[in-house]
Design goal:
The chain has 413 residues and is α+β, with helices and mostly antiparallel strands. It folds into two domains: 200 residues, no CATH class; 183 residues, no CATH class. The chain contains 15 helices and 14 strands. Strands 2-3-8-5-7-6 form a six-stranded mixed beta barrel. A two-stranded antiparallel sheet has the order 11-14. A hairpin with a 4-residue loop joins β2 and β3. The protein is elongated, with a radius of gyration of 31 Å. It starts with a helix and ends with a helix. The model has no long low-confidence stretch (mean pLDDT 83).
């Protein structure tokens, strides 16, 4: 305790230098927290959006569906699969969906599109992203409603408006071409150009009837989690309980391009944080080393009057510890208000994104409001890294202080 008190007083013998060092620690910590919070929240939201626009955080499907997607490759007994998934503690919601390719025709033109058949009674805004993007008309209310919902650009390409007739054709589970007729009951704009030009929504029972599917048959059972980071664990548990005719896979397995892009961005942010950390580490080391070199005579006297090298080493390390602890407190203090403000209110990026042609990655659009949010474990890693870096920076200066030759150093003026 005596060493800690002496170390605290020693720090403030050079107030200006100590304050500048603490500011550099706090500013570096602030940058690390804000950058990490931006990454954590942005990519968590993006993954959730991808899940809501696709097959969920985990999807149960035919084992060969990913390699060769086809409406022939369906899964049966979906009610049992839903019950199995809902029993998992990490699962929030489970729904059935049918994904496939469809050809749409009007009196003026024909276009291929992506089909999603869904059950309106089972879906919510938390599971079905397209509910947020309705521009005209209304979403389906039941799984057997008449009508068809199109992406905004797709409707424009087809030259069809609300109430207009659309003939759709697709390949059923036997490989036969089947057709249906529906009137446009809704138009959606997601903000993702490729999606708006290809999206088609139909009630799941209408699709089942057209394809010849059973009442408990679909191409996907979509599983939604409270935390998308648990996808791997949930998929593994489900695969252990299902037979070989079904396979649970994560959003990352189903969308490797999105997973790769996110990994690249996160890796780049980590590299930047490491560079910032090294610069701060150099500054801390410089402060402590100069402090030791200026006090060579003082350390020599301390050793001459009975201090052990270990005690001198410990004294300098306590100075490093005080720098770390005060720096951590300052980091939290200067980060709190901007973090809270950005987490709650965010930054409206709509004007910036409006100048870009495509606000999407693989058909998944970005939210135009940028929020931040940091995982507790990420915050713990940053704070521990600051503590470790500051203590590490003090090791060599402390070692040098303990190795001062008493006789020669006392002669220095």
């Amino acid at each position: 305790m005596r060493l800690a008190n002496i170390a605290w007083r020693n720090l403030w013998r050079q107030k200006r230098r100590t304050i500048l060092t603490l500011i550099s620690i706090a500013f570096g910590g602030f940058l690390a927290i804000m950058m990490t919070a931006m990454q954590d929240r942005s990519w968590a939201d993006f993954i959730d959006t991808a899940a809501r626009m696709g097959g969920g955080h985990v999807r149960v499907q035919h084992p060969d569906y990913l390699e060769t997607p086809s409406l022939k490759k369906s899964v049966g007994k979906t009610a049992e699969l839903r019950a199995l998934a809902e029993a998992d503690p990490d699962v929030e919601t489970v729904v059935e969906r049918i994904f496939g390719q469809i050809m749409l025709s009007t009196a003026t033109d024909s276009f291929g599109a992506a089909l999603i058949g869904y059950d309106p009674a089972a879906e919510t805004e938390e599971t079905f992203r397209f509910m947020d993007g309705l521009k005209e008309g209304a979403m389906f209310e039941t799984a057997s409603d008449p009508g068809i919902i199109l992406g905004k650009k797709l409707a424009s390409n087809l030259g069809v408006e609300m109430g207009g007739k659309v003939v759709y054709t697709l390949m059923d589970k036997e490989g036969e071409i089947v057709a249906g007729l529906a009137r446009v009951s809704g138009i959606i704009g997601t903000g993702a150009g490729s999606l708006d030009s290809s999206l088609t929504l139909l009630p799941i029972n209408v699709v089942r009837e057209t394809l010849g599917y059973a009442a408990d048959e679909a191409t996907h059972v979509s599983v939604f989690l409270a935390d998308g980071r648990n996808s791997d664990a949930v998929a593994k548990r489900l695969n252990e309980q299902m037979d070989s005719s079904q396979r649970a896979m994560t959003w990352a397995d189903a969308s490797p391009d999105i997973a790769g892009f996110i990994a690249m961005k996160i890796g780049g942010a980590i590299v930047m944080e490491i560079i910032i950390g090294l610069l701060i580490l150099a500054g801390i080391f410089n402060t402590l080393f100069i402090s030791v070199m200026e006090r060579v005579r003082e350390f020599g006297i301390m050793l001459a009057i009975g201090w052990s090298p270990k005690q001198v080493f410990g004294l300098v390390m306590f100075e490093s510890l005080w720098l770390a602890l005060v720096g951590l407190v300052m980091t939290v203090c200067i980060s709190w208000f901007p973090y809270k403000s950005l987490a709650e209110n965010g930054i409206d990026m709509s004007e910036v994104y409006a100048t870009q042609d495509a606000l999407e990655i693989s058909g998944v659009g970005f939210d135009t409001t940028l929020h931040i949010g940091i995982y507790p474990e990420s915050l713990a890693v940053i704070l521990c890294a600051i503590l470790f870096a500051t203590l590490s920076a003090g090791l060599y200066p402390a070692y040098k202080a303990g190795r001062v030759p008493p006789v020669e150093s006392i002669k220095l003026v």
